[in-house]
Amino acid sequence: MGTEKERRDTQKALLYDERRLLKNSGKETYATEGLRNLLGTIAGAKDQE
């Protein structure tokens, strides 16, 4: 099991990846439901890796 610092670094990396995906999606704004759906799709894709 990793250290607390490693866990925080991993969380930051995941947030950065999600931020990049949102930026590259081409949409300027998201409704709450659309954002939840997108994040669900991202989480599902991560489970497939």
Description:
- With 49 residues, the chain is an all-alpha fold.
- The chain is 78% helix and 0% strand.
- It is built from two helices and no strands.
- The chain has helices at residues 4-24, 32-48.
- The protein is elongated.
- The relative contact order is 0.10.
Structure keywords:
2 helices; mainly alpha; 49 residues; single chain; 0% strand
Could you give the topology of this structure?
Elements: H1 4-24, H2 32-48
What is shown here, in short?
The protein is built from 2 helices and no strands. It has helices at residues 4-24, 32-48. It starts with a helix and ends with a helix.
The mean pLDDT is 83
Q: How many DSSP helices?
A: 2
- The share of residues in extended strands comes to under 5%
Q: What oligomeric assembly is this protein in?
A: single chain
Specify Rg, calculated over alpha carbons: 13 Å
User: In percent, how helical is the residue content?
Assistant: over 70%
The main β sheet shows up as: none
Distance between the termini: 20 Å
Order of H and E elements? HH
Structural class: mainly alpha
List the uncertain runs.
none
Number of strands: 0
The dominant shape is elongated
